[in-house]
């Protein structure tokens, strides 16, 4: 029996629903999902393994014009995923307000088959869905178009089947028990970062990075320390909150998720550290895993 395997890249503008789609296709929560744009910063692999196939999905940061070095690195992850892809899933919000010219230009340059996924149809109507499908047919002339709701799981099975049928015959790229290329530490830091995206406003989430500094497995529990890095003292005060009230919330919510993820009791300690303008400094971006 021939084994199929390949790379499937999920790309699109910020907030289109890429991470929601990835989680739905993989059947696990791999990527953090929040209502804010630019939540995803890395290229995150989600691997689906069956006896006769292996699909390696990549969730990528939303396509933007980079304003600072961190965003440049984020866009490098997108380019990398377009170059590798056997199939590209382009996710677009049916009610998209952004100008998508930059994504369209990128997609027109690739040799890989492009599938357009018109997402969030639960927030639309049949006429608008038809109009959008016609628009994308004319604009991109893609290999296929699906109208989906990543949130409600509508048409996701059809997309999955399409991917499977178009996957090349190839031996597996990863061990068949691997679910991702990222470490437990990475997912722990993402869970803390997700809470920061949900609990704080304006620039705070975008100025924040989370680094797991210690991860010790003991018999009864896992002891984890993490640093929340911000760019200025004023942001440090906001993260901590009056009498530590805000950081306590971050810690409590994150710990609950991490316990579920690790299936073990967790002791989580959070520290806040200021590194001025870390998002524009190459050495920090490298240390935080954004640069090769
Ligand atoms: N109504 C509706 N909302 C959706 C759907 N898919 C995603 N969303 C919501 O849209 C928001 C953004 O979803 P994400 O999956 O984080 O989007 P993303 O494209 O990964 O965003 P970035 O990481 O910023 O690039 C979240 O609030 C989701 O719950 C959908 O099919 N319908």
Automatic annotation (TrEMBL):
Residues 59-62 are annotated as: G3. Monomer. Keywords: Cell membrane, Cytoplasm, GTP-binding, Membrane, Nucleotide-binding, Ribosome biogenesis, RNA-binding, rRNA-binding. Residues 4-169 form the Era-type G domain. PROSITE patterns: G_ERA (PS51713), KH_TYPE_2 (PS50823). InterPro entries: G_ERA_dom, GTP-bd, GTPase_Era-like, KH_dom-like_a/b, KH_dom_type_2, KH_sf_prok-type, P-loop_NTPase, Small_GTP-bd. Belongs to the TRAFAC class TrmE-Era-EngA-EngB-Septin-like GTPase superfamily. Era GTPase family. CDD domains: Era, KH-II_Era. Its main location: cytoplasm. An essential GTPase that binds both GDP and GTP, with rapid nucleotide exchange. Plays a role in 16S rRNA processing and 30S ribosomal subunit biogenesis and possibly also in cell cycle regulation and energy metabolism. This is GTPase Era.
